[in-house]
Write a structure and sequence with these properties.
The chain is of the alpha/beta class. It has a domain of 120 residues: Ribosomal Protein L25, Chain P (Beta Barrel). Helix content is 24%, strand content 20%. The strands form 7 sheets. Strands 12-25-26-27-23-24-13 form a 7-stranded mixed beta sheet. Strands 21-18-19-20-14-17-22 form a 7-stranded mixed beta sheet, with no helix packed on it. It has a 4-stranded antiparallel beta sheet with strand order 4-5-6-7. Helix 9 packs across helix 10 and helix 13 packs across helix 14. The structure holds adenosine-5'-triphosphate and glutamine.
């Protein structure tokens, strides 16, 4: 029997989601007012975009449960203790969309004083792995949720099998040997518009189906040679009632045709031919089973076994609600209530496992957790705090409509969160040396810098010496009246340094012509004179071997991985839409010494889920070392860093929302 996927809403030929793409996702100053954009020389220019208009952050992190869709869902069934589940298939890493499902399922239970289980929906052995199981669990904990129980659909394989026999005995299922084409025809053809008619096997005697089902179990049939179908209602207008599969004999390698890339499609076919007779190996049950229950048979029953009260899933399962209830009514007493909410999808990126795999395989990105991706491990590595993700989801709210979100909006939300939470320090991405000639060689002044606008964060000290480094883009060889940073003859403030400095001369590399050193004068006023007031202040770091300053680092600036909002729609394929400057590397960045304290105190502030010492959270990784690099953005330490203060690698989490000069 051919198992090629088909349009689910019209023709639910194979009830496993991998065989049913179409049940599927909707096609898927002291503000320095004086600082003006300047034509900077090469190098990073501090961000100067206007403040993005963004919706206000709901003050209440539980607002999504108090009003709207989820409040209504609760009202429908409020008399029992709430039990929910988050049911991922362990066949890949979770992505941003899953954070909504996690926030909803775990959050709903927590809000109502109930419990939520993490259930691995492992009914499709091809592609499921323990590695994904582990990663998913860690991600859920990283988001700050503790599953009350961790279960697997496969825990119930014996019980499900027994119930399948019961269903046959109740004349509610039959073994079918039709080909895919025959089944399509029985269901009214490809568009479902022709008359529907019963499968010839539908009327076979109960005992015969029972014998054949046992034969399926015992290996008499090759993959797809027979299937157990539910005897539903062909008259019903809902395709989810047209005798869905309950059990199937899968091939070793399954196609996920909804996501299959053209180039992979050919490979997959070849492999399928070679391996088609091999039974798949399940990562938990091994080779015990040759037959596997479908999603439609499994999910509702497992929900019932676990005492789930509210089974919350995404809208593509709305039509499935009827079959969900039909089967539970036939076989079990406890009846969970399925309700469907809108998916969260991100534009400007790809979330499909196969596409991400291709990006990794072809080395467009380093790995599945490359910070340019929108898998949750990638967002974690990029330094986005779990709280920022939850706040983003809460901000969007929950309705039945799909939230199609632009990367820009997500970043605005993250930026706002970081602005209120992380400490600040000075970091120079692309340094240029400044020698303040009139300061003594051994000048060492310790200056106090606050870690935040919030005094609770405290202060730290940084050395100020004769040699400092500033951002290359903060210097211009030729001054102009509309330029307010460093240029010959123009005083500029160094943040928190008592007096301004004025560039006097500069040296250039004979070949590259690049400025190598700027010489400056310290504008200490003579007795009785008023100090000069610079029009702008720039960030800097000092050179002080005794104070171990600066700390050097490689900084990776994360830009969008794709040029367009819809990479999948690119006529030459999504790979053709890759942004060649999705990652900019600054190998010689410099950080001031406050970094040591931030690193020591991380996670600072502590985030739910990053509480390394607590067995329920996850071990705080390098990404929990987060700070605002003043005027430059928000940064975190990348796992590629070495352990000490040498070999630090930073990722820029997001740029700053404000124009330059914000202290
Ligand atoms: N984009 C999304 N928005 C909201 N919820 C989602 C999204 N994607 C998956 N979910 C929900 O997360 C839960 C676990 O999903 P699972 O990993 O099994 O789904 P999936 O549809 O295979 O995901 P994928 O997008 O990786 O194909 C399900 O309840 C599913 O409905
Ligand atoms: N009902 C659901 O939440 C569906 C979960 C299921 N693992 C999926 O395919 O997406």
């Amino acid at each position: 029997m051919d198992n090629t996927p088909s349009k689910a809403t019209q023709m639910p030929l194979e009830p496993n989601k991998h065989e049913l793409p179409e049940r599927s996702k909707p096609s898927k100053a002291k503000k320095e007012k004086a600082i003006k954009p300047a034509k900077a020389p090469k190098g990073p220019t501090p961000p100067r975009t206007k403040r993005e208009a963004a919706p206000p952050i709901p003050n209440d992190p539980d607002s999504m449960f108090k009003v709207g869709f989820l409040a209504d869902v609760y009202q429908e069934r409020s008399s029992e203790r709430v039990i929910t589940r988050f049911p991922p298939e362990p066949n890949g890493y979770l992505h941003i969309g899953h954070s909504k499902a996690i926030a909803i399922n775990f959050g709903f239970a927590r809000y109502h004083g109930g419990e939520c289980y993490l259930r691995f929906d492992d009914t499709n052995p091809a592609g499921e792995e323990k590695e994904f199981d582990d990663s998913i669990e860690e991600t859920v904990r990283w988001l700050g949720f503790t599953p009350k129980r961790i279960t697997h659909s496969s825990d119930n394989f014996d019980r499900l099998y027994e119930l399948a026999e019961v269903l046959i005995q109740k004349d509610g299922a039959y073994v079918c040997h039709c080909t895919k084409a025959q089944i399509v025809d029985q269901r009214g053809g490809g568009d479902g518009k022709k008359p529907r008619y019963a499968c010839p096997h539908r009327s076979r005697p109960i005992l015969e189906s029972l014998t054949e089902f046992r034969a399926m179990r015992d290996g008499k049939y090759k993959p797809n040679g027979a299937a157990l179908r539910m005897k539903q209602n062909l008259e019903d207008g809902n395709p989810q009632m047209w005798d869905l599969f309950a059990y199937r004999i899968p091939r070793k390698k399954e196609e996920e045709a909804d996501e299959l890339l053209e180039e992979d499609r050919e490979d997959a076919k070849e492999e399928d031919t070679k391996e088609e007779d091999l039974a798949p190996h399940h990562y938990r049950t091994g080779d015990k089973w040759k037959i596997y229950p479908t999603y439609d048979f499994t999910h509702c029953l497992c929900d019932s076994f676990e005492g789930i009260t509210h089974s919350l899933c995404t809208v593509e399962f709305e039509l499935s609600r009827v079959s969900y209830e039909w089967l539970n009514n036939k076989l079990v007493d406890h009846k969970p209530m399925q309700r469907e909410y809108g998916r969260l999808s991100m534009s400007g990126t790809v979330l499909s496992k196969r596409k991400i795999q291709k990006l990794v395989q072809d080395k467009h990105v380093r790995s599945w957790d490359d910070p340019r991706l929108y898998t949750l491990p990638a967002l974690r590595r990029r330094g986005i705090p779990p709280g920022a993700i939850l706040s983003f989801v809460n901000e969007l709210g929950v309705t039945k409509a799909t939230s199609n979100i632009e990367i820009k909006r997500f970043e605005t939300s993250v930026r706002r969160y970081l602005e209120m939470t992380v400490p600040r320090l000075m970091l120079v991405l692309d340094p240029i040396k400044v020698v303040i000639d009139d300061l003594p060689d051994d000048h060492l002044e310790m200056l106090e810098l606050p870690f935040s606008k919030d005094p609770a964060y405290g202060v730290h000290t940084v050395p100020f010496t004769k040699t400092v480094y500033i951002e290359r883009s903060d210097f211009r060889e030729v001054d102009s009246p509309d330029y307010f940073r460093m240029a010959p003859g123009k005083p500029v403030g160094l943040m928190k340094v008592p007096y301004p400095i004025t560039a006097t001369t500069f040296e250039k590399h004979p070949e590259s012509g690049q400025v190598t050193v700027v010489h400056a004068r310290y504008e200490r006023p003579a007795e009785g004179e008023k100090p000069l007031k610079p029009k702008s202040f720039i960030h800097w770091v000092a050179s002080s071997p005794t104070r171990k300053s600066p700390i050097t680092a490689e900084v990776r600036i994360i830009n969008p991985l794709f040029n367009s909002d819809n990479p999948a729609a690119h006529p030459s394929g999504f790979l053709a839409d890759i942004n060649p400057t999705s990652e900019e590397i600054f190998p010689n960045a410099m950080i001031e010494t406050g970094f040591e304290e931030i690193r020591r105190r991380a996670p600072w502030p502590a985030e739910a889920g990053e509480n390394g010492s607590d067995s329920e959270g996850v071990v705080a990784g390098p990404e929990t070392v987060r700070f605002q690099g003043m005027r430059m953005g928000y940064f975190c330490v990348d796992g590629d860093s070495e352990a000490g203060m040498e070999g630090v690698v930073l990722n820029r989490i997001v740029s700053l929302k404000e124009d330059t000069g914000k202290d």
